[in-house]
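User:
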Amino acid sequence: MAVQINPSILSADFARLAEEAKAVQGADWLHVDVMDNHFVPNLTLGVPVVESLARATDTPLDCHLMIEGPDRWAPQYVEAGASSVTFHVEAAAAPVRLAREIRAKGARASMALKPATPIEPYEDLLPELDMLLVMTVEPGFGGQAFLDIMLPKIRRTRELIKKHGLQLWLQVDGGVSASTIERCADAGADVFVAGSAVYGADDPAEAVRALRTQAEAATAQASWVCDH
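Assistant: Predicted structure:
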């Protein structure tokens, strides 16, 4: 499995988004947090900003929709230029139909789980997805401390992916940094969202490279890879 590092622009300077996108050269994706002040208690950005950002960077956009009514809004983010769209299963009325619609429009379909949401009830949905996001903080704000209690959930999710023989990316988002990324990789994650750990660094591009090196080293030794 190839490690992927997705800097979160939630931690970037919103007045300089085009420049901030260029500052993380070498990143696999740009993670775009969309919040509506309803599903989570924060308000960030929407379709027009995603359209502008898609024109300003060649790095593909990974849009994480922390919003109510994703069944209605998610397809618009594909049309705006997102290459991957993540909806929260807690907010989706028809997650299978939504995942298929996102895929039909040409983007990768991803489903997110809040910390208290177990993966097991959604095992049968996994073949409909390209990525599964396990939140390692409560969604809504950047800069939160990583929740170690999510590591067993990451492991269980990776076991389900292996059980079904799926090529499904497993993303973690929340508190990912130099001190936590190795534990996430060892547990089974292969896509890492990092906000303040990247944009809070003196050299964001170097921070991306350093996180990738750590994650690759941990992945190479991880039991879920070695036993594959």
